[in-house]
Structure formats: structure tokens, C-alpha cells
Amino acid sequence: MKADTHPEYHFITVKMTDGTEYQTRSTWGKEGDTMSLDIDPTSHPAWTGGGTKLMDTGGRVSKFKNKYAGLGF
Length: 73
Known about the structure:
By secondary structure, this protein is an alpha+beta fold. The chain is about 15% helix and about 20% strand.
């Protein structure tokens, strides 16, 4: 196997929307970084049955709804 072909694999902390945290190994960021999730399995409608409202932190949901408002599904 060639040297230096794979990214560094290290421990990071993942912070869920409810504030809980867990450690996992990842190639994202640097050793010890914290990844804060906007949507996770505890808040996403696909896993919760659709009763939860999506948090629109960056305006992406509003932008999507405005863009496709006239389709009338």
C-alpha cells in the first residue's frame, strides 16, 4: 500500500441537537474537534415519524420552500 494515500483517522466529538455528545473516529476536522449537528436522528422527521419541526439555522429550508412553492404537490 502506498504511504500517505489515506486521510488521517482520529477521534472527534459529535454534539447532537439535544446537547448530548459522543466520541467517534472520523477523517473530518482535527483530533479533538467538535462537530455540532443541525439535524440528527433524534430530530429528523425521517426517524421521528414527521412530527418534529426542522430547525432552519442557515435559511436553507425557507429558501427551498420558497423556490418550490408553486409546484402544488
